[in-house]
Amino acid sequence: MAFWNRRRSIEAITSFEGGSRLKATMSWPHLIALGVGAIVGTGIYTLIGVGAAKAGPAVMLAFLVAGLVCVFAALAYAELATMIPASGSAYTYSYAALGEMLAWVIGWSLILEYSLVVSAVAVGWAGYFNGFMESIGWALPAALTSGPFGTDTPGIVNLPAVGIVGVVAGMLMLGTRESATVNAVLVVIKVLALIAFVAIAAPHFDPANLQPFMPFGFGKTVDSNGVEVGVMAAAAIIFFAFYGFDAVSTAAEETRNPKRDLTIGIVGSMVVCIIIYMVVAAAAVGSMPFGQFAGSPEPLAFIARTLGSETAATIIAGAAIIALPTVLLAFMYGQSRIFFVMARDGMLPRALAKVSAKRGSPVLMTGVTAVLMAVVAGLFSLGELAALANAGTLAAFIAVGASLIVLRIQQPNRERMFKAPAWPLVGAGAILGCIYLFISLPVSTQVNFFIWNGAGLVIYLLFARRNTRIAKGEETAA
């Protein structure tokens, strides 16, 4: 069999060597908290301003479009995660359905996604932290609140962004269950802050603020300043606000009852978050003209402050400071597991696939991951990171849709604890919707994505294809 088409059997994927199996400690409440913690974060707290600048009041429609695409992907994830209860997410499913080389591409894209999500959220968190510190009279030097790249006001390093990555990495190193429990508490704080924002903004709702509803049109266009605008341009960025449920699938191996709890965690977290997002977006764009808050690094706090609720603005900013790290935790968790599984499969050096005997988690890989993410967060801006992270995620979601279709056709009789309804529509919806969103991304982002994967393919051809378990004869290809 050609190396690029080698596939791992599901039986092999779900059997683990004694020293490299992760410890099962989580149940469905932890998974829903992990999903909501990952999904509700920088996207609604900060990117709503970026989206409004591109779509105007129709940013609500952009949220809906991105959410619908994610619903298709979430249903596909739920079926595959319960059928293949192993860490690795889209990378693992692709290895079983699409072949080794495509699995590498998806794993490499997931590394891009998770690394940049954590870095982008850290930058978004730093925006709220800096605003909060300034509001209490303890403003940090400008040179230490902005990286040198991708910003109009370049500094030396975004020190708060680097610091929060280190704090979250330390939490994860303490252990999966312990960090999941802290995450659940912080998720409650974050959701309560959004409810408080809606309560403040809703009384100021003015239909006039929604006119014109779609000032830049639906499809992606370029305005007079060379900026890509339109509902789809906004949706391609706001898509960042919805994914996170895929981080739940990386917890498959650490879930006590994966066949039941993964479905609840993935689908449940998506439903909760779509409702939250639509309500918050409507309250934001209805309370004031979108142009007033579109450029703010802390748009929700800015809106509350402008509406005369200085105390509420401080509370919202404080809640973001406390609770946005739940997104960092979920994605750093997912990234370390992707790295871990790829190393366990031989795609990356196997020395990295070490599980702490005391913690039952990959402490070494978590530390390596944190260093890489901290460097990126300290140097780059939010918008630049979010767009490129979206490209990696869209590639993964396309692969999950394709894997769903391939496994339904090739292995129709395999047990599926959860079956995606109308699976041909779900699979095709995930694939076509994500392709449309990818096309709507900035051209520079598309180019950088292909450069990243071009470099990844070189690594695969030179190292990974010779060192996988199948290539070493440790396992027979499916």
Provide a descriptive summary of the structure in words:
- This protein has a two-stranded antiparallel ribbon with strand order 1-2.
- 67% of the residues lie in helices and 1% in strands.
- With 478 residues, the chain is mostly helical.
- It has a single domain, classed as Amino acid/polyamine transporter I (Up-down Bundle), CATH 1.20.1740.
- 59% of the residues are buried.
Q: What's the layout of helices and strands?
A:
Elements: H1 10-13, H2 28-39, H3 42-45, H4 47-55, H5 59-83, H6 89-97, H7 100-135, H8 159-174, H9 176-201, E1 221-222, E2 228-229, H10 231-238, H11 245-249, H12 258-287, H13 290-293, H14 299-306, H15 310-323, H16 325-344, H17 363-379, H18 382-410, H19 423-440, H20 443-467
Antiparallel strand pairs: 1-2
